[in-house]
Design brief:
single chain; alpha+beta; 14 helices; Immunoglobulin-like
């Protein structure tokens, strides 16, 4: 166990309890204020102030066992904890301090042969993500301590027992999972059995050493269903001001030259007309969903400070132009997803502006969190604002009138455009009861509408079937960057553990329609994160397009654009690079075509096949229906040298099934023992698919190459 894991929790009746952990900061010189922000308080720098005593600032917080990331905010400067026992990158060029709180019954080393089970680690519930129905199968999961039990099985009353497989692991927990057929007609009763050494322990609804069954009534069970179209496509994200300027007549004043250096405030003139002029490009890529950063009237170039939710910003175009764009996209098989900012508005939003002008006499005072009057739009404003930015006052969602207004927004746009979904900005900061109302509203318009939340960590609380359909999967991005990033610190085993942890955290149907991104408007570009190493950036894309989830391309990444933190990552689209000679564009086109041609890469379950930390390689499969040949096998080489990879497919496919390398690599051979031996060039990937899923290279402007075969 890592040395920085501090045993800070107590155990009562086998359940890990909250304990108080004290954070302390001793400044090298006097400071005025110290706060702490982290995953335990939504990274709110104002929520948790420390107190000064004897030269040290400190606070004691109740925390449950788990891994937490945090920073101190010292006079508005974010710094890591000088006494932190571990720090780690966040995939966005920043470094956070880490605290892992370990349950009290972890005080002895784990062993699957000592006859002792850590009761605090055991967790199951008859709800997502531990109980889920998807594609005719019931998935049951049980959480344990890593390396603590020899094996786990579930005993289903009247049916039989089923062995469970370990699927993912982290610092604190391991998850065991099994999938069994269920017709949803008969009630279910079941419990678990854990073997540790010579002992077998039952685990039921009352905990360890209890065989009382969990019970599920079939008639009352409602599965979590998400729009099936999402997982079958590829998303393309556009920052409207920077994609293309198609109509100079609507340009803002002081519009910048297209190749100018972006700042936090300058504008480039990108608009709807520019998008419409490049629809052939988008269709040619093969994308199926267009995600637009905010398009509504706002005060900034990013438009996350909404002035009017019902009006397209005139610098982008008109409501009519946007409606026409969505219809043209639909005719090409591309759906439109809008960015909804329902957490805060602009100070020029009509309701806030009314309070500015009329003070306490305004009928809109209850729409926000005003502390006093008159309203002062300045640093440290006298109203609640997002991250205390004066330009973004936070919405009071408990106000019935404001709630009705916001819920009418998707209704309005459903009447004026063909909108297939909403991406919800800083969605973790909005009350859950609002999202429940939002879901009812959006799904009543069309049950196939997609709802995607922004949450950079664990979004389980919002993905129980009553709020979002899925989430922007930043943990997926973190696992990929840890593997391909310029420092190369991540091992192949870390990659597979990280990918499986991200996938297994949610119900399979949720993970399949998660937005798998390696870059966005909030992060440095993937090529920059890879130290401008083109091969590593293309390797990252190969993982993105072959892992479970829906890949999302941040405009220009497919062209090999570079860019650091915001605003450097928001440069104007480099259209001069959009040629058949561009190796990035060729690679992305091929990856998209391979994915679109292979159902296993769209909807298949991920199956880790192995990793080798010594030679920098990893392999995994995507399996939809092996009997029908719906399978894909992916091999990765992160090292700087050619590598030979050997792995077995015996448990996945029939010996006579033929596979070919859709990326055109060397031949793979199947040994009499059912093993595959594959040669991989440095920093490269192979994607083995059935011949029916092979794309014609001539379609992509590339000459043919001898395919690999199995």
């Amino acid at each position: 166990m890592n040395s920085f894991l501090a045993v800070l929790a107590c155990v009562f009746s086998g359940v890990a309890q909250e304990v108080r952990h004290t954070f302390t900061f001793v400044p090298p010189k006097p400071v005025h204020q110290v706060t702490i922000a982290g995953t335990f308080n939504g990274w709110d720098k104002n929520a948790t102030p420390l107190r000064l005593s004897g030269g040290a600032w400190s606070i004691s917080l109740p925390l449950r066992p788990g891994k937490y990331r945090y920073k101190f905010v010292v006079d508005d400067q974010w710094i890591t904890d000088p006494k932190a026992q571990a720090n780690e990158g966040d995939g966005n060029g920043n470094v956070n301090s880490v605290l892992v709180i370990v349950p009290g019954d972890y005080d002895r080393p784990a062993s699957p042969n000592d006859g002792v089970v850590a009761a605090s680690a055991l967790e199951h519930a008859t709800e997502i993500p531990y109980f889920n129905f998807d594609r005719g199968h019931l998935t049951l999961s049980l959480r344990t301590r890593p390396n603590d039990v020899a094996d786990v099985k579930v005993v289903v009353k009247g049916v039989g027992s089923f062995p469970m497989q370990g699927t993912d692991i982290d610092d604190l927990y391991r998850r065991y999972t099994v999938s069994i057929p269920w017709d949803r007609k008969r009630d279910l009763s079941y419990h678990f059995e854990l073997r540790d050494g010579r002992k077998t322990f039952p685990f039921g609804k009352n905990g360890l050493n209890d065989s009382a069954d969990y019970r599920v009534e079939a008639k009352k069970f409602k599965p979590f269903e998400v729009p099936p179209w999402v997982e079958k496509g590829v998303i393309y994200q556009i920052f409207p001001d920077r994609f293309a300027n198609g109509d100079t007549k609507n340009d803002p004043r002081n519009v910048q030259p297209w190749n100018a250096t972006p700042t936090y405030s300058n504008r480039f003139g990108g608009d709807i007309a520019g998008i419409r002029q490049h629809l052939d490009y988008l269709e040619g890529l093969g994308v199926k969903t267009l995600y637009l950063n905010p398009i509504f009237l706002a005060g900034s170039n990013h438009r996350y400070d909404t002035i009017d939710y019902l009006k397209v910003d005139p610098e982008i175009g008109t409501n009519e132009e946007f409606g026409q764009l969505t219809r043209e996209l639909k005719s090409r098989g591309i759906r439109t997803v809008l960015d909804g900012v329902f957490n805060h508005t602009s100070t020029k939003f009509f309701a806030f502006d009314d309070v500015v002008r009329n003070g306490a006499a305004s009928k809109y005072t209850g729409w926000y969190g005003f502390k006093s009057f008159p309203v002062k739009i300045q640093e440290n404003p006298n109203y609640v604002a997002w991250f205390n930015f004066p330009s973004m006052p936070k919405v009071n969602h408990s106000n019935p009138a404001f709630r009705r207004y916001l819920l009418d927004v998707p209704v309005y746009w459903a009447k004026h455009a063909d909108v297939a979904g909403w991406r919800l900005d800083v969605a973790n900061e909005v009350p859950m009861d609002f999202w429940r109302d939002f879901r009812r509203t959006v799904k009543s318009i069309n049950p196939q509408n997609w709802i995607l939340g922004e949450e950079w960590g664990d979004a389980t609380r919002w993905l129980q079937g009553d709020q979002w359909d899925s989430v922007m999967d930043y943990p997926f991005r973190g696992a990929v960057l840890n593997f391909v990033g310029k420092d190369g610190s991540g091992k192949p085993s870390d990659l597979m553990n990280g990918l499986m942890a991200a996938y297994s955290r949610y119900a399979p149907q949720v993970s399949r329609n998660a937005m798998n991104l390696i870059g966005s408007h909030d992060t440095p570009r993937i090529l920059t994160m890879c130290g401008e190493d083109k091969d590593l950036a293309k390797l990252a894309a190969s993982i993105q397009f072959t892992w479970a989830g829906t890949p999302s391309i941040y405009y220009g990444d497919e062209l090999g654009m570079s860019g650091g933190k915001d605003p450097e990552n928001r440069r104007g689209m480099e259209w001069a690079k959009a040629t058949d000679r561009n190796e990035f564009l060729t690679h992305y086109r091929r990856l998209i075509a391979i994915r679109n041609a292979n159902p296993a890469l769209q909807s298949g379950d991920p199956v880790p096949l192995g990793s080798n930390d010594a030679n920098g390689t990893a392999t995994y499969a995507r399996v939809l229906d092996a009997d029908k040949g719906q399978i894909a096998v992916i091999a990765l080489n992160r090292s700087d040298r050619p590598q030979q990879i050997v792995f077995s497919l015996d448990r996945l496919i029939h010996r006579r099934l033929k596979l070919v390398d859709a990326l055109g690599g060397e031949a793979a051979t199947l040994s009499p023992q059912g093993q595959i031996r594959l040669s991989l060039a440095p920093k490269s990937a192979a994607i083995l698919v059935p011949p029916s899923g092979l794309i014609r290279h001539s379609r992509l402007g590339r000459g043919s190459r001898r395919p690999a075969s199995v």
